[in-house]
Amino acid sequence: MDMMNLPSANPVILVCTTLLCALAFLYIRSRSSRLSSSLPPSPRRLPIIGNLHQLGASAHEALHTLSLKHGPLMLLHFGSVPTYIVSSGDLAMQVMKTREAGFSGKPVTKASLILLQGGADVLLHPRWTQTKKVSVTGLLSLKKVQSLQFIREEEVASLVSNIRSLVSDGTIDKRSHQRQVNVSNMSLKLASTILSRALLGLKSTADGGRESNKIIGDLSKQAITLLHEKFAVGNFIPALSWLDHLRGLTGEAEKVSQAIHEFLDRAIDERETHQQSDAGDEKRNDDRKYFVDILLELQKKDMVIGHRLTRKDIRAILLILFLGGFDSSATNLEWAMAELVKNPRVMKKLQDEIRGVVGKKSEIFQTDLDQMEYLKCVIKETLRLHATTLAVRRSTEDVNVGGYKILANANVLINIWAIHRDPAVWERPLEFVPERFLDAGYTYLGQDQKYFPFGLGRGICPGIQFAMFGSEYSLANFLCWFNWELPEGMSVSNLDMSSNDIAAHRNVPLYLVPVHPAN
């Protein structure tokens, strides 16, 4: 090509273009600088993976360590996902309560989408707020929780009877795990059975419901593992989602989801048949309605914001409530037993209270629990140290918090583990001291920025009363009728109390030895 044939450049145009480019560059740089200065401190990140390499085996502990350097509000990037970390009670109160309208979103992972089979839109749709209100007045109200007390009584009595038999016939052996009580497994089975009966109306253990309760319990354990313990690359780096398929995670989630929904469909069908057979029975006891019955009635009446609940919606709601209640109830009971056996003084004091209230009665009644103040303190202290480690929200708009800007469409993690161990708030924060809750005024209801094991604001867990009634009743029975010891060769000093995941699961199962009290 002949270079001489190119048109010549106009010097005025060149100067103007250069000036405009320079001004645009300065404007963009200035704007970026202002935005950066308004964002929270952020540790240096790596290409592609962001700050994922800084999490280590225990995310909540790693985030706490980072917060000591960068402050109580910091910005990290997990892959391509911007994530704000909140590590102080006052900032958590702003995110979860004071300015909760700007944090009303919930991150949806690939596993949750698969497990809910498209019913995840129940969580994202405004009608979910109304559905939660219905659930509170339906199953989770104080009246309904008390009306279903018979389920807890029957299942705990069955478990206590089984443990008594093991102790009496010499099956228990301090030297062998195979002949000890796996408290971790026991807690999961108990929580699963109580919830499956309350939510789905399944048969009791004594009436032949053991197998169906075991099936839904096992499936739920697999689902919780997928949600909390299996690292899915695609949640953080969407371009690498194919790795989750290659590793078999997607296929595993689909298999578990299919099995769960088939089970739920059978349970719902049974309740529909039961409702039809009871349709003309005026003497039917409404207090024996299970949560699935309430949802089916709402479906017929179109009572959720004029929206008719679909079968998919009902399955999703039941699954969400089951997984949440099953996991938290079992974990709380398991950790309470671990802390008590590690702290013999506390166990002795609690057993004295329980046995003093029960006296010569052969069973524990709800009215007895109302008199057990120290029992409630023990459970509160257990939740302080071993509640869900991280609460998760998603910003729906730009919000100013603590002098910094949290941008819209970002994840927000509240480090409950760190807040509940803040030495500026709690005396001897790493020790198990239930007495700190005597006359302290702390409740489970998320009214204090120092203590909120079930969350704050509108995002608070709706099943608090159901969970607490179950924990109190179960723990009171285990400690009333038995003494508990560590296996032979194990001491308090080498009892593993570690936990790594967001749901505060123990890293190793808890094995204990039940013993009949001398008196």
UniProtKB/TrEMBL annotation:
Residue ranges of coiled coil: none
Residues reported to bind heme: C461
Cofactor(s) demanded: heme
Molecular function terms, GO-annotated: heme binding; iron ion binding; monooxygenase activity; oxidoreductase activity, acting on paired donors, with incorporation or reduction of molecular oxygen
Transmembrane annotation, as ranges: 12-28
Keywords in alphabetical order: Heme, Iron, Membrane, Metal-binding, Transmembrane, Transmembrane helix
Top-level taxon of the source organism: Eukaryota
Record-linked Pfam families: p450
Family: Belongs to the cytochrome P450 family.
Name this polypeptide is given: Cytochrome P450
